[in-house]
Specification:
This protein is 75% helix and 2% strand. With 327 residues, the chain is mainly alpha-helical. The chain has a two-stranded antiparallel ribbon with strand order 1-4. Helix 3 packs across helix 13. The longest helix has 31 residues. The chain is globular and about 65 Å long.
């Protein structure tokens, strides 16, 4: 009987169920606010909007699982976009889509590498290191190309953000799904994934177990940087231009998505599926607030409140777990 009760208790995980419940409620509310919301066209547009946020959220999830944080993703996205735009229009590789894509990925990886070295080797707290990089990338996004707008109206790269497979399914969402599948593979089928959870659970224990924590922590930040680069490509190709202000609310949306999706800010927990659901929820919240004609500045306030509630819920659940273990 005790075994049955234990099994029953383990059967429901509120932190995994809540994102799905919130998503269902939001879909219901939006369908009531607008009868056409669940139309195929509207849903496809939603998938297109969630793509860039979803990719950044996957990268943020890796860092958060280790117990860290990455504040450089927002302005980093803009800096990477400006660098790729300059390479495509003003470099010896002008007009080369391949060179542009390599710049997106390479610049993202470089950003992640610098973040990782600062955190793992220089031993700067992730909060401070990535906050400094946020300021640095903001300045660089203005310096690269003189801070001017670069139009890409005739570039084949636009297919990544605007193209639709069969005229229906957004190519950008397919890229997001590919990133999700690769992320799940890394987390559950490689040493990097196992060690990522181990570092977030107890970094000292991971070191004593022989894990080269510094090396794998750097790799985690590189993964996050590559995700930022891919998200930059999706954003640039969707709006068909590059400006230093393309970052928008990417950073807060990504952090909110990971929190809502069940990632613990204290580290050691997070899933790809939960993060994807969290990203969809964030986009749906913005859509709902737009339908309700809420001012843009109030939308930021609402998103901040969502992050606080998600973190508070995580802290409450962690406290309950500690009490159940010690009881």
């Amino acid at each position: 009987m005790n075994a049955a009760l234990t099994k029953k208790k383990r059967g429901v995980n509120l932190q995994q169920v809540m994102p799905v419940v919130i998503l269902a409620v939001l879909l219901l509310v939006l369908s009531l606010l607008n009868r056409d919301f669940l139309s195929p066209q509207t849903l496809m547009n939603l998938l297109q909007q969630v793509s860039a946020v979803g990719v950044v959220s996957i990268g943020a999830m890796f860092v958060i699982i280790t117990g860290g944080i990455d504040f450089s993703a927002g302005y980093g996205l803009a800096m990477i976009g400006m660098a790729a735009g300059v390479v495509y229009t003003q470099s010896p590789f002008a007009g080369s889509v391949v060179a542009m894509v390599v710049t997106f990925i390479g610049a993202g990886a470089l950003l992640g590498l610098v973040n990782g070295l600062l955190v793992a080797k220089v031993k700067i707290m992730p909060f401070i290191a990535t906050l400094a990089m946020m300021s640095l990338t903001q300045g660089m996004s203005l310096m690269i190309g003189g801070g001017t707008m670069i139009m890409l109206s005739d570039s084949p790269i636009l297919a990544a953000g605007q193209g639709k497979l069969g005229g229906v399914l957004p190519v950008s969402f397919l890229i997001l799904l590919a990133v999700c599948m690769l992320a799940a593979l890394l987390l559950h089928r490689t040493k990097l994934g196992v060690y990522t959870y181990a570092m977030g659970g107890n970094e000292d224990a991971a070191r004593y177990a022989g894990i080269r924590v510094d090396r794998y922590k750097i790799m985690v930040y590189v993964v996050a940087g590559v995700c930022t680069g891919i998200a930059s490509m999706l954003t640039v190709s969707r709006i068909a231009m590059v400006t230093p202000s393309i970052y928008g609310t990417t950073l807060t949306d990504a952090i909110a998505a990971t929190c809502i999706g069940g990632s613990s800010m204290s580290g050691g927990r997070g899933t790809v599926s939960g993060t994807l659901v969290g990203a969809i929820i964030i986009v749906l919240i913005s859509t709902a607030l737009t339908y309700l004609k809420i001012p843009a500045e109030m939308q930021d306030v609402f998103k901040g409140a969502v992050i606080l509630l998600a973190v508070a819920f995580d802290a409450l659940m962690n406290r309950k777990k500690v009490r159940s273990v010690t009881a």
